[in-house]
Amino acid sequence: MTTRKKARPIELPEVSVSDDGEVRHLHLGTPWIQGSMRVDEPFALELEYVQRMMAWLLFVEPASVGKRHAMQLGLGAGAITKFCHKKLRLCATAIELNPQVLAVCRQWFKLPPDGPKLRVVLADAAQEIQNPMWLGTVDALAVDLYDHDAAAPVLDSPDFYADCRALLSEDGSMTVNLFGRSSSYEKSLQSMASAFGEDALWAFKPTREGNTVVLAQRTPTRPKRAELLARAEAIQARWELPAPKWLRVFKPVA
């Protein structure tokens, strides 16, 4: 059963779906694509930047993945939550403000119903992540919070990222979708550094579309390249993610 929390009294955009026959897209009142799903492979990760949001897998032993807890802030088309639930087979939680988004994900994007290892909380992410029940419980936090204009992250302050850090387990990581070619990118990076420390940050180069995924570790580490490559190859073999290619464009920020 979906849990509902009190949300801020704001106007929520209309949710719509477009479909080209092979790929289905989610929109929030504009032509901007807020999430995508390949119709024939509903639990695969279609978008390149969403695949990169799984970079936290490089910092954990593959054998431990199924015992972990992933949380997604901003459900979008549900790609990350579905992948974590169906492919990684771990406990997955999503926090989403807009009930329309949840309804569309269930109807059009194959989001499974809530169960013992999957739950969607309808809530304001900024408030919900301060709930003591979540503190220290999240191993992989995915932050992809954009409004209908997709201009800049909705939640992006040092205090917000400090709250995100408090959610993480000792070896947990946060991945954030940013626009690397936007003027807000450096500000976002500074906000994350103030909460996590510069030595905790890793970043990809921008995708062709300009999305830059930044990863922040609760406990900074610097694995040797050979260790990262071995994990990347295991990730590709087990979950069909292009992790070895990530290492060409994924580096520590500091």
UniProtKB/TrEMBL annotation:
- Lineage per the UniProt record: Bacteria, Pseudomonadati, Pseudomonadota, Betaproteobacteria, Burkholderiales
The protein's name in its UniProt record: Spermidine synthase
Note the InterPro entries from the entry: SAM-dependent_MTases_sf
Keywords for this entry? Polyamine biosynthesis
Cross-referenced Gene3D superfamilies: Vaccinia Virus protein VP39
UniProt-listed SUPFAM superfamilies: S-adenosyl-L-methionine-dependent methyltransferases (SSF53335)
Q: GO biological process: any one?
A: polyamine biosynthetic process
